[in-house]
Amino acid sequence: AQKVTQAQTEISVVEKEDVTLDCVYETRDTTYYLFWYKQPPSGELVFLIRRNSFDEQNEISGRYSWNFQKSTSSFNFTITASQVVDSAVYFCALSGINNAGNMLTFGGGTRLMVKP
Amino acid sequence: DVKVTQSSRYLVKRTGEKVFLECVQDMDHENMFWYRQDPGLGLRLIYFSYDVKMKEKGDIPEGYSVSREKKERFSLILESASTNQTSMYLCASSSSGDRDTDTQYFGPGTRLTVL
Prior knowledge:
The structure holds 2 protein chains of 2 kinds.
Chain A: E1 3-5, E2 10-14, E3 19-21, E4 24-26, E5 32-39, E6 46-52, E7 59-61, E8 64-69, E9 74-79, E10 88-96, E11 105-106, E12 110-115
Parallel strand pairs in A: 2-12
Antiparallel strand pairs in A: 1-4, 3-9, 5-6, 5-10, 7-8, 8-9, 10-11, 10-12
Chain B: E1 4-6, E2 10-13, E3 19-25, E4 31-38, E5 42-49, E6 56-57, E7 65-70, E8 73-78, E9 87-94, E10 105-106, E11 110-114
Parallel strand pairs in B: 2-11
Antiparallel strand pairs in B: 1-3, 3-8, 4-5, 4-9, 5-6, 7-8, 9-10, 9-11
């Protein structure tokens, strides 16, 4: 069975601070994909990134960066110089090669509040 | 860009009514999904479909049914709405192709209130 744990339910930071959202996963698959989604107050989940299990290179996209470490089964997400517009709920998700119908297993989400 | 649309952003229904939530995607995706999202419980999968007329139960299918008559459209049906079905409902679609495998794209959500 697959599992995704986002231990931080809520994080509050002041604008311009850096913040890291943690994601730890469990899977027996050797090939799998990891995802991060953002859910702003409007409600729609916005896709941010997809990584496959064979690619452990860290990725940077503007103020966003992701650290994938297979050894610790973690896929953490860092926002540098946070802004108020980053306030949202962030979900980490996992899919596996053996998932019927390409299902995703989601973590419980982390609510990020960025205060001006 | 992938576009997933849902028929309503907000819906208010009475207990016992039959409710239809519609979802349409324009990217020719094979897979479509219905989730509900509740505070503290995250996203829970209700049903999914990997082809026209095919459906599979997710984690919480009780009280719901689905219909997929056309590839682009996936409907969620509450046969007799109850107050415990008050929730945010999210539709998603994904491709089975290699380039974008498993990435689900979501609609804006429907916030359903059952009185």
